[in-house]
Structures are given as C-alpha cells and as structure tokens.
C-alpha cells in the first residue's frame, strides 16, 4: 500500500468523534483481556427488568459448545427501543418514512411508534400469538413492518422476516421450516413505481398442503389494491387496530430467549434459520451502531437496506431505536424516479449518515457523476458500506462524488450470523484504506488460518475465523442445533468459521476477499449455489446443473449456470428464457441466472464430484489458469465447455 491510498483521520470528524485511536486501543485491549468487566459495564447501556449478575459464559470447545451472555438478566427489546425514550424524547422523530413516491413522507415520533406497537402487540395476542411463537413477516418497507417486528418483541414472539422479493415457493419453505402459524403481510408493496403482489404470494405459498398450520394472516393495506380474501383466516390490520388498547406491558424476557430468526443461505442445503437472542444481540447491535456510525443525539441516519436482511434488523430498527436515533425508512429504490433519488432523499431529510451497499454505489457510478446533479448532500458527515467487498474504485467514487471528499467511509464487515458489525473503522479513530474493513470492533478476535486450521501471524492471507464469542453472535440454527455446530465450528475446531477469506496487511488491517465456500454474493444478497442448482434440476428438462459466480461490474458477482439437459432435449434460446423464469419462480428475481451455458457434460472427479474450481475459471474467462486437471474423470469435457463459453 502506498501512502496515497491512505486517508488519515479527518480532523473535523475527529473533533466530534466519540472514540479516538488511543481510546480504541485501550478499550479493545480491555474487551479482550477482561471480557466480563468490559461487557458487564457496556451491558448497562440497556434497561434491564432484572439486572444480570453473570456476563460471559461461552465455550467454543467443539464437543461442548455453549454460548450464553448476560444469562440471568431479563429485559424486553421493544421496551429498550421505545418505552425508555418516552420521558426524554417522546416527541422526537424515531422514524422518517420516505415513500417510493417522492411526494410521500412522514415523521413518526417515539410516542407514536410506542402507541402503535402496543396496540399491535395486543392485536397479535387477540389473534392467539403467544410468547415463543414464530410469526412470519412478509412486508414492504413501511412503518407497519417496524411496528410488527417490535410488537412481536414486546410479547416475546419470535419474528421471522422474509424478504418481499422472495417467491411464494421460497416463502412457503420458510414458513414451513419455522412451523409458523401466523403471517403478517400487506395487500401489495410498491417499489420503483411497480406493485408487488405480496398478499397474492402469501395465498400461493399457503396453498402448499404442508402449510395447513397457518391460522391467521394479518393484512396491512398499503395500496388498497383488490386482493382475494380467505374469510376466517385473513384479518385486516386497520380494523383490528381501531379498537385495540394502547396499554401492553412488555413481556420480561430472559437475555437468552429468542428475539428473531432470519433465513440465510449456506454452502449446502436449504437456507437456515439463524436464531438471535435478546440481551447480547441488543447490547451488541446498539453499541456497534453508536460507535461505528459515531451516532450522537439528533443525527439523521439512513440505512438503505431492507428489513428482509440482517442489516435492516440491526441497523434500521434495533440498533438505532435502542439508541434513541432518528432512522430513515425508505420504501423505494435508488434509481426511481431517476438516479438522483439517493441525493434527493439525503437533501430532503438532511441525512447525516448514509449506510448503503457497494452494488448501489457501482450502479450510480455507471450513471456518471450527473446522478448527483441538483443535490448538495451538504448534511452528510459519514458514509458506510456493507454487504460485499467494496472495490477501491467504488470506494473512491463514493468518497469523492457522494461524500464530496469530506466524509469518512466505514466499510463494515459482518454477517447474518454475527448479529452486528465485527470489523470496521471507527470513523474518528482510524486512518482509512479504500477496500479495507480495517480493524475488529471491541471484543472481536479475528484470525487467519491456513486450510489445516493453523493460525497465521503477521501480514498474510487465509481463512477468516473468530477465536472467541461476542454478545451479538447467533446461538443456533432454528430446529437444527447440530447443523449449527457442524456449519460453523467443525471446519476449524475451537473457532467460528466465517466462510470468508481475508488478507491482513502490515498495519494489521483486514481486507476481506470474499467467500471461500459455495456461497454467492449477488448485489450484496447471499445465495447458495446449491439452492440455485436444486431449483434448476427441479425443471423437467434439466438433468444436471452447476452454478458458480463470476465477476460482474455492478452486482459484484453474477450467476453463471451450466446446464445439462435430459437426453434427447434440444437446447434453445426459448428454453434459456424459460429456465430464467423458472428460477425466478422457485426462489425470486434476485436468483435470476445472468448466463446459461449448455453443458453436454460437467467436469467431475472420478468419484463424481463436480469440480467447481474449473467451472469458476471458465466463467471468469480465465481458462488459461485452470490449474491441475489430472483428477478429472474426462478432461475433454473442459475443452468442450471452453470452446462454447458464453460471452457476457
Ligand atoms: C451484513 C451482511 C454476509 C457476507 C459475508 C461477506 C459479505 C458483508 C462485507 C462483506 C466484504 C464487507 N460481506 N459485508 N464482504 N466487506 N464490508 O451482509 O450479511 O447477508 O449474511 O452476508 O457478505 O462475504 O460473509 P449477510
């Protein structure tokens, strides 16, 4: 790294910053050397109904795995996000809602959000929802979604938010896996001027015979669109809210009681329900939100994620609200009505902190600097990035064009499983290097290991593991604890394996290089290659399919599919289109294949394992670097694929 690639701490930002480099060094040391003292102190940032006397009780011992934080404490997440703010900031804005239509926005105060949440919590109770029940939320980005999540938390129900872009089939699989008896949805969502038939999708999902267990579907009116109605099962949000009492005492929850589950893709099998608990998660989400975004009272903070992903949970809802923040909730997309929308929203609501994804930045970059014309963005003082590695060019562009060369950028590395940010700059403390997530947050002990699990020292590259637990860590995979232990703790015994690779430089800065397993990251969305493959082979004409990622200018990774048709079937462009539609139907538009290549055969080892390494190289047009192909059962397959490679 040359000096010109280092951005020293911005002196103006340092003046207001909560944490200096000296403080970071001292606090980090304590967090690792004396975790009980450190987290015992910082756990007090929340209101506890019953204070904890124990702090950290965790072991990564493979045969004896156990993760508990604040285990004898009791609290309620919704009370921490709402009730405790009423006396000091009841009339302050909690949520600024910005509609898909730029003419539509409104402010919701903490008092209003509290009242709606209490009412809806009573509604859920009246519909039979009890503590420990799983409630599926399939909603657009509207205030009622925040209300629904907080209302679940208030009564101790476990919410399971399913991204509104998922297909009925994907929704059905998640409802089924969670044995969820309740669904909350909206008539339709609106994004980029287009309607999304959420209620219709729920109906289609529930037609699946295995889902007979769903008792109630609560439907919020977003568009007042005409939707089919199933008397007895479907109930209207607005009608139930009319008569609901606004008095609903928060349920005391043990720190280790579940708060929510959220499905995410792994390298094998069906998506897994990542389970987060109450105390550790909320301490960690709120503390990272405060320090990473240097959040201070009155700052207007905008995270552009969706509630369907973990970023929406931790950094639109729980972290910010626990901190009494003003959080922007955006229903739309960055390029509607046109590509100046992001700048427009920043100016309209005087946003100080903008947290978005590299894919959005690259899409704007492709439009050219004119996409910020007519906006000043002068309110911004900090930028954030999440979801995938940010390439230095996109970082520089974000810094220069969106942030007017004035705002530090926090490149935050974390995962659904980690609950909150693990590696990120603290903006008033660290010099920045474009493309590096820099250093670990308090209490986080990253390490790089070789393929045999040996810890590597100094400047090097390897598999990224975490050596000890932090409070926000997931506790299990819903309904499959064994899979949890296997997935995260069996590759390198005694360590949490992230699935990512990383490089560490001479300053100890981490550079995340991307997944080292069979997980794709398409526009910041995680997808398992196995998921896309099983969708494809479910098609009658597909005999076999192999899916790999390839470098894509905007999406980060695109989806490259090799398909072998059943004997006697002829490849055609129509069939390609049909397969793309098929995958969209099975999973959702985010899984649309970018390239389909017909493959008369796939490169396999003699034991029949598909050699994806080779398929990745062909897709990336790097077939001069195939490496060792001597273990292939039939090497001629490779030449055939190279000769018929699809051009992107
Ligand atoms: C929060 C979130 C997790 C995977 C993760 C990694 C990639 C996320 C990143 C990043 C490089 C960053 N990732 N943030 N890679 N730099 N700042 O995205 O969770 O959807 O579970 O994805 O995303 O590969 O393992 P999730």
From TrEMBL:
Task: Give start and end of each Acetyl-coenzyme A synthetase N-terminal domain.
Answer: 24-81
* Domain called AMP-binding enzyme C-terminal: residue spans: 531-609
Q: Name one GO molecular function term.
A: acetate-CoA ligase activity
Q: Which UniProt keywords apply?
A: Acetylation, ATP-binding, Ligase, Magnesium, Metal-binding, Nucleotide-binding
Where on this chain does CoA bind? 191-194, 311, 335, 523, 584
| Domain AMP-dependent synthetase/ligase, chain residue ranges per copy | 83-466
Residues recorded as binding Mg(2+), renumbered to this chain, are: 537, 539, 542
In the UniProt record, does the keyword Magnesium occur?
yes
List the coiled-coil residues: none
What residues does ATP bind to? 387-389, 411-416, 500, 515, 526
Name the chemical reaction catalysed here. Answer: acetate + ATP + CoA = acetyl-CoA + AMP + diphosphate
UniProt keyword Nucleotide-binding, yes or no: yes
**Family designation:** Belongs to the ATP-dependent AMP-binding enzyme family.
Q: What does this protein do?
A: Catalyzes the conversion of acetate into acetyl-CoA (AcCoA), an essential intermediate at the junction of anabolic and catabolic pathways. AcsA undergoes a two-step reaction. In the first half reaction, AcsA combines acetate with ATP to form acetyl-adenylate (AcAMP) intermediate. In the second half reaction, it can then transfer the acetyl group from AcAMP to the sulfhydryl group of CoA, forming the product AcCoA.
HAMAP family from the entry?
Ac_CoA_synth
Protein's UniProt name:
Acetyl-coenzyme A synthetase
């Amino acid at each position: 790294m040359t000096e010109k690639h280092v951005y020293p701490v911005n002196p103006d930002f340092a003046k207001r910053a909560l944490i200096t480099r000296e403080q970071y060094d001292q606090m980090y040391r304590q967090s690792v050397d004396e975790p009980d003292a450190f987290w015992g102190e910082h756990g007090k940032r929340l209101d506890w109904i019953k204070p904890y006397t124990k702090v950290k009780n965790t072991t990564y011992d493979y045969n004896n795995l156990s993760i508990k934080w604040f285990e004898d404490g009791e609290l309620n997440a919704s009370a921490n996000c709402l009730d405790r703010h009423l006396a000091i900031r009841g009339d302050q804005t909690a949520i600024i809602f910005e509609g898909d239509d730029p003419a539509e926005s409104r402010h919701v105060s903490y008092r209003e959000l509290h009242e709606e949440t209490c009412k809806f919590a009573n509604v859920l109770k009246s519909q039979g929802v009890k503590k420990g029940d799983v409630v599926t939320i399939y909603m657009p980005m509207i205030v009622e979604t925040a209300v629904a999540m907080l209302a679940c938390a208030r009564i101790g129900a476990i919410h399971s938010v399913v991204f509104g872009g998922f297909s009925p089939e994907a929704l059905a699989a998640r409802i089924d896996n969670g044995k969820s008896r309740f669904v909350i949805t909206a008539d339709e969502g609106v994004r980029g001027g287009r309607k999304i038939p959420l209620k219709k999708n729920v109906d289609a999902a529930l037609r699946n015979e295995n889902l007979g267990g769903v008792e109630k579907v609560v439907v919020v009116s977003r568009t007042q669109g005409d939707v089919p109605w199933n008397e007895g099962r479907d109930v209207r949000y607005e009608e139930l809210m009319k008569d609901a009492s606004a008095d609903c005492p928060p349920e005391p929850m043990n720190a280790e009681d579940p708060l929510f589950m959220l499905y995410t893709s792994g390298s094998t099998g069906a998506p897994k329900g990542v389970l987060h608990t109450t105390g550790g998660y909320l301490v960690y989400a709120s503390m990272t939100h405060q320090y990473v975004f240097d959040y201070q009272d009155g700052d207007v903070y905008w995270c552009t994620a969706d509630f369907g992903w973990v970023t929406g949970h931790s950094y639109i809802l729980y972290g910010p609200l626990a901190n009494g923040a003003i959080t922007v909730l955006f229903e739309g997309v960055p390029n509607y009505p046109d590509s100046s929308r992001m700048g427009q929203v920043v100016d309209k609501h005087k946003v100080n902190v903008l947290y978005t994804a590299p894919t959005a930045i690259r899409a704007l970059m492709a439009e050219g600097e004119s996409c910020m014309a007519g906006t000043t963005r002068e309110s911004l003082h900090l930028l954030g990035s999440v979801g995938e590695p940010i390439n230095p060019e996109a970082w520089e562009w974000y810094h220069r064009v969106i942030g007017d060369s004035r705002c530090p950028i926090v490149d935050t590395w974390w995962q659904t499983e980690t609950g909150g940010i693990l590696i990120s700059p603290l903006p008033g403390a660290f010099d920045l290097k474009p493309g590096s997530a820099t250093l670990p947050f308090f209490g986080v002990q990253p390490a790089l290991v070789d393929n045999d699990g040996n810890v590597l020292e100094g400047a090097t590259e390897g598999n990224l593991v975490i050596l000890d637990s932090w409070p926000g860590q997931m506790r299990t995979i819903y309904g499959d604890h064994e899979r949890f232990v296997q997935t995260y703790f069996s590759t390198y015994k005694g360590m949490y394996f992230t699935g990512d690779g990383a490089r560490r430089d001479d300053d100890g800065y981490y550079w995340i290089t991307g997944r080292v397993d069979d997980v794709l990251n398409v526009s910041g969305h995680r997808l398992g290659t196995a998921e896309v493959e099983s969708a494809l082979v479910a098609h009658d004409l597909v005999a076999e399919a192999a899916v790999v990622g390839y470098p894509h200018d905007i999406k980060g990774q695109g989806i490259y599919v090799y398909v072998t048709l059943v004997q006697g079937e002829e490849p055609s462009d129509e069939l390609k289109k049909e397969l793309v539609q098929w995958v969209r139907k099975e999973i959702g538009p985010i899984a649309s294949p970018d390239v389909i290549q017909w493959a008369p055969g796939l490169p396999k080892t003699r034991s029949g394992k598909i050699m994806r390494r080779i398929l990745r190289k062909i897709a990336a047009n790097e077939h001069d670097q195939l490496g060792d192909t001597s273990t292939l059962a039939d090497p001629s397959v490779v030449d055939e694929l190279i000769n018929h490679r699809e051009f992107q």
